[in-house]
Amino acid sequence: MSSHTQQSSLHIENMTEGAPARAILKFAVPLILGYLLQQMYLIIDAAIVGRWIGVNALAAVGASSSIMFLIMGFCNGACAGFAIPVAQAFGAGDYHKMRCYVSNALRIAVVFSVVITLLSCLLCEKILQLVNTPNDIFHDAYVFLFLQFCAIPFTITYNLYAGQIRALGNSKQPFYFLIVSSLVNILLDVVLILLLGMGVEGAGIATLLSQAFASWLCYRFIRRHMPMLVPQGDERQFDNKRISILLNNGVPMGLQFSITGIGIIMLQSANNALGTVYVASFTAALRIKYLFTCVLENIGVAMATYCGQNIGAGRIDRIKSGVKDAMLVMLAYFVLTVAVIYPFADEMMMLFVNNGEQEVIANAALLMRIANWFYPSLGILVILRYSIQGLGYSNLSMMSGVMEMLARCGVSLWLVPALTWTGVCYADPVAWVMADLFLIPAFWWLMKRLKGKNIKR
């Protein structure tokens, strides 16, 4: 065993051994807790904005949420894709190759950070016009979105380093960093919004600074406690072949989120055209919805690392059983969400607005309840999508994003004009079902293909 391995053995987790359900849950629970915490601070952020500044400010923060999903989704997806070859090399025990991937992923991330940040900031005003942002909230929406774009380099840095840490099976440390950065964000919200009266600008600055802090924490942890991830000597050299492999994994995963984001932008554009009340309703509902759906999302994220390590180790037999166990966990969680969301959706929305905003509360609660019944469809989607990505077939999983985009575009063009807010409520369920119609047969075909290759070996 090398010194790199010895020094970092306490911080890695081999997912190619032991019971699949135990390995998946052990990895997923810190992820889930971390993202629950992250969503909690987004909820607190929105509650501070909505209750202390007003409904218009809440709408301004939410008016560009689809744009943020499009751009940040690409950044986060690409970084998750860059971690897949790292996980596969780790599963195969080839640490030299793993560190070569790490150094070349950093090169790509720097280029992405510069290009995406510059383009986003320059086009900020045009983007808000594109999604029919109401005039009465346009200025605040612009300020908030511009500051979010300025934070893109820190978002990419955090997701790149966190993805590499998770590739080695360690999902706890990024969770701890999210705890700290979330507390920093909330503290900055209180100081900048409540004490200094900076309004929406304060919310944007708080998010930027907390993201920068999380990035620094990840960097420091890798340097001090995971030296096996730090490239040395010729491992730092530019490698065209590994750059190509990283891009083949990262770009399709990033585009998958961006393609999905196009459908969400069309949906938000259709919803924004309904008026400020509906923009506020959409913002409030999404904050709570993400609090619940991030659990499903992170079961899927766990499957990407699980499948990546096992395909790297040649353990094809464990992949199918892992997917089955993840599905059972997802269904158990769905039952829990029904017991919480259905009776208490209205009360949850009162976190963001006063009791007098009954139209906003009723609209947001309706969206929550309708989406909740389709959580199993979302669970199937994320488990199969991330499993396919972890196996190295990002192009295949990207097609599910195309299906989601087409579904949301159809809802935006036909269902929303016909049913107004009710049409908006059914956009996500329709998109999830459409993606499943592609992913289920795709995963079945892929497992047959991999099983055949394994037999030949």
TrEMBL record:
Transmembrane spans: 42-61, 67-87, 108-129, 141-163, 175-196, 202-222, 243-267, 287-306, 326-345, 365-384, 405-424, 430-447
UniProt subcellular location: Cell membrane
GO cellular component terms given for this protein: plasma membrane
Keyword Nucleotide-binding: no
Topology of this chain in the membrane: Multi-pass membrane protein
GO molecular function: antiporter activity; xenobiotic transmembrane transporter activity
CDD domains assigned: MATE_yoeA_like
Alphabetical UniProt keywords: Cell membrane, Membrane, Transmembrane, Transmembrane helix, Transport
Pfam families: MatE
Main location: membrane
Name of the featured protein: MATE efflux family protein
Source organism of this protein record: Segatella maculosa OT 289
Classification lineage: Bacteria, Pseudomonadati, Bacteroidota, Bacteroidia, Bacteroidales
